[in-house]
Amino acid sequence: MPESSLAERGDRSEEQVSGAKVVAQALKTQGVEYVFGIVGVPVTEIAVAAQGLGIWYIGMRNEQAACYAASAIGYLTGRPLIVIGGSSDRSQETMGAFQEFPQVEACRLYSKFSARPSSIEAIPTIIEKAVRSSIYGRPGACYVDIPADFVNLEVNANSIKYVECCMPPPVSMAETSAVRMAASVIRNAKQPLLVIGKGAAYARAEESIRKLVEQCKLPFLPTPMGKGVVPDNHPNCVRAARSRALQFADVIVLFGARLNWILHFGLPPRYQPDVKFIQVDICAEELGNNVRPAVTLLGDINAVTKQLLEQFDKTPWQYPPESTWWKTLREKMKSNEAASKELASKISLPMNYYTVFYHVQEQLPRDCFVVSEGANTMDIGRTVLQNYLPRHRLDAGTFGTMGVGLGFAIAAALVAKDRHPGQRVICVEGDSAFGFSGMEVETICRYNLPIILLVVNNNGIYQGVDASSWKEMLNFREAAAMAPPFCLLPNSHYEQVMTAFGGNGYFVQTPEELRKSLRQSLADTAKPSLINIMIEPQAMRKAQDFHWLTRSNM
C-alpha cells in the first residue's frame, strides 16, 4: 500500500470529534428536526453543531417559551420534548461550581427519563433512549444532562457508535372481549356521547373516529385540543350544548380524554350518578381515575377505534337521529347559539368578547392554526372560533398554564412554513396572558413567521377598569395602595411591541377597524402582525349552567 494511503488512513483513525458534535449528530440520527433554546455557556457549541447538520435552531427570548415551543412541535409532529441541559464540570461537582444543581435528580420527578451520560461515547445511547422513551406509551418529556467539560472535550471519532433511529412506537390493541363489550354498551345506550380528546388528535385517529361518528350517527363533543379531529361544523358536533350533553348522557365514550378538571372529574352534578364510561386510552394508569369505568379499552386510540368499527361492520347499528336525546341536544344548541349571537350583535362600544370573536371567525382561513391563551379570552374563544382540521388548535391545556401562547404559535408557524406553506397561525391572547411571553414577538419577527397575534385587551386579569376610572383612582392614592390587583394599565399599546421589531401593528376599537386590520394582516404574507383589540373592561362570558371549577368572591 502506498505511504500516502497509509497516512490518510492514519489521519482518519486519529480524527477527533467534540462532545457538542456528538450530541448534535445523535439528535440528527434520531430524526430531530427542530431545536429551541437560549444559548450560553456551555451549550452554545451544541446549537452551532446542530445547525451544521441541517437541524433548525430557533433562538428564543425565554427558556419557558423555548420549552413550550418544543412541546408543541412534539404534539404536531409526533416527536415529543427532549430537554438538553448543560451542567457544571464533572471535576467541580460538590465544590459549589457555577450553577451547580442536581438536575438529573430534580428532573426525574417531572419526566419519563432523566440521565447524564457517563462519557462522550455514551451520549448516542442515552439520546436514543430519551427519544424512544418520550414517544413510547403516553408521550412525555425526557431530560439529558450534558456536563460542561463534555461539550468541547474531544475523543477519537472511531470510538463513537451512533445508535440508529428508534423504531416508531408499537401499536397496541385492546382485548377483543372488551371491544365487544364496549360495542354492546354503546348499542344499548339511550343517550350516548363521544368525547374526543387531545389523545385522539395525537394518535392521528381522525379518519377512524369520523367514520364511527357518521356510521353510527353518534353525537360528539371535542375537548379544547380535540377540536378539529372531526370538524367543529360537523352536524353531529354538540359543543354548543356541552353542559347538557355531559350532564344527561347515559353512556360516554372517552377517546384520549382524561376525567380530570377539564371534564369535571366525571362526577355528579355534572354527570348522571349512574353514567357508564367507556375509556379508550394508551395509558393503563389513566383507566379508572376518579370513576370506575364500565369498559376499559387499553391501546392505541386509532387502532382501538378501528376495532370498534369492525364490530359495527359485522352487525350494523345506528343511533336514531330523531331520538328525544338528539332533540334535546339540538334545542339546547339552538338556544345557546342564539344567546351568543345576541351578545355578538351588540353595537355598543367598547366591544365585548362575542362581538370580537364573531368578526374574527368570519375571516379565519379554514386551514389556519388557532392558538389561544387567557381566561375569558380562551374560554369564550374556543366556543366561537372553529377548527376544521386535526392538531390545528393549541391552548393552555390540562395545566391551564399562562405564557404558552407565543411559544406554541412559533412552533405551529415553523410546521406551517416547513410543511404546509401558505397556512397561517392566529394566536389569540388575553392582554394579561400576552405579558407572560410578549418579548417572543422579537423571535417571531427575527424568523419572519406567518403569525397574526390578536390581543384581546380588557385592561386587566379577568377584568380591568377604563382610563378615566384609573386616572381618578390615582388622584387619591398611589396605585400600589389602591389599584385593584387584577388591573393592568388601561389602553396599553401592545401593537407597538410588534412595530418596534418591524412587524405590522394595529390598535382597534370598533368592529369596522377589527375587520379591516384582520383583512390587511391576512393579505400581508411578508410580515407578522399584532392587532390590539380594545374591549369593555368589565366584559364577561354569558351565563353558565354551572360555576367554573374554582370560584372567587370578587
From TrEMBL:
Residues 377-533 form the Thiamine pyrophosphate enzyme TPP-binding domain. GO terms for biological process: fatty acid alpha-oxidation. Residues 180-308 form the Thiamine pyrophosphate enzyme central domain. It holds the Pfam family TPP_enzyme_N. Its cofactor is thiamine diphosphate. Its EC number is 4.1.2.63. Residues 18-85 form the Thiamine pyrophosphate enzyme N-terminal TPP-binding domain. It catalyses: an (R)-2-hydroxy-long-chain-fatty acyl-CoA = a long-chain fatty aldehyde + formyl-CoA; 2-hydroxyoctadecanoyl-CoA = heptadecanal + formyl-CoA; a 2-hydroxy-3-methyl fatty acyl-CoA = a 2-methyl-branched fatty aldehyde + formyl-CoA. Keywords: Lyase, Magnesium, Metal-binding, Thiamine pyrophosphate. One of its GO terms (molecular function) is 2-hydroxyacyl-CoA lyase activity. CDD domains: TPP_BZL_OCoD_HPCL, TPP_PYR_POX_like. It is an enzyme of class 4 (lyase). GO terms for cellular component: peroxisome. Belongs to the TPP enzyme family. This is 2-hydroxyacyl-CoA lyase. It comes from Trichechus manatus latirostris (Florida manatee).
